[in-house]
Amino acid sequence: MSPEGQAPDASTVAHHVAAVRARIDAVAAGRDVTLVAVTKTFPASAIADAVAAGCRAIGENYAQELVAKVADLDRLTAASTGSPAPRPEIHFIGHLQTNKVRMLAPVVTVWQTLDRESAIDEVARRAPGARAFVQVNVSDEPQKSGCRPEEAAALVGRGRDAGLVIEGLMTIGVMGDPDAARIGFRLLRSLATSLDLHGCSMGMSDDLEIAVEEGATHVRVGSALFGPRVHDPGGDLR
Ligand SMILES: *Cc1c(COP(=O)(O)O)cnc(C)c1O
């Protein structure tokens, strides 16, 4: 699969980044919230534009697409400066297949979707000491990835025992129902706090205010920065 989506031009991306930051700041009450710019289906230039607009964290969902895109990004930045620019933090936010961990390990900075023992063990083996989040399905929707809330403590413990740096919990909110989304985000925040975890990755383009109000430390935002996604081969949010 090749990223073929049309992203807006660099100055439009910069405007969108500023607008999303303003939305975050309006509800963050001075807290520091990391904006993870989700570039799936868009070309490497979208990553470069987001970085130029001040984003330090990039989110990607698909293994092949990500690996190809990082190579493109290195070429792109080398073409203008002679050597590849330092890469932004790459957060893997898609469903993690165990057999993709090996190819992902050289490019992923933060593994946000660890939701079962086999994935944790494989990441610990291929990317020793890596930064990670445990993904929790707080809404009990069967089609969604994520462990059950009552499994989170054991998975966090397993990750820590395996030498990973577990920074927090991650969830995908209930779509289209702000009240249900809020309840889920609140559950994730209290679960993270009870496990001594600072990080809470929750909230996307449509529900980021609710997530930040409920204590998100990371929001993952795609369409509000880059526009609608035309090609999404894997289907969103699995
Ligand atoms: C695609 C995706 C996002 C971004 O969604 P938008 O609605 O475009 O902001 C966030 N999180 C995950 C896990 C995703 O797959």
Nutshell version of this structure?
This protein has 238 residues and is α/β, with parallel strands linked by helices. The protein has helices spanning 10-28, 44-52, 63-81, 101-104, 117-126, 152-161, 178-194, 208-213, 223-226, and strands at 34-38, 57-60, 89-92, 110-114, 131-135, 165-170, 199-201, 218-221. The protein has a single domain (10-226), classed as Alanine racemase (TIM Barrel), CATH 3.20.20.
Question: What can you tell me about this protein's structure?
Answer:
- The chain has 238 residues and is α/β, with parallel strands linked by helices.
- It has a single domain (10-226), classed as TIM Barrel.
- The chain is 41% helix and 15% strand.
- It is built from 9 helices and 8 strands.
- It has helices at residues 10-28, 44-52, 63-81, 101-104, 117-126, 152-161, 178-194, 208-213, 223-226; strands at residues 34-38, 57-60, 89-92, 110-114, 131-135, 165-170, 199-201, 218-221.
- It has an 8-stranded parallel sheet with strand order 7-6-5-4-3-2-1-8.
- Helix 4 links the parallel strand 3 (89-92) and strand 4 (110-114).
- The radius of gyration is 17 Å and the shape is globular.
- The protein starts with 9 loop residues before the first helix and ends in a 12-residue tail after the last helix.
- The model has no long low-confidence stretch (mean pLDDT 94).
- It binds pyridoxal-5'-phosphate.
- The site of pyridoxal-5'-phosphate has 15 residues, from strand 8 and helix 9.
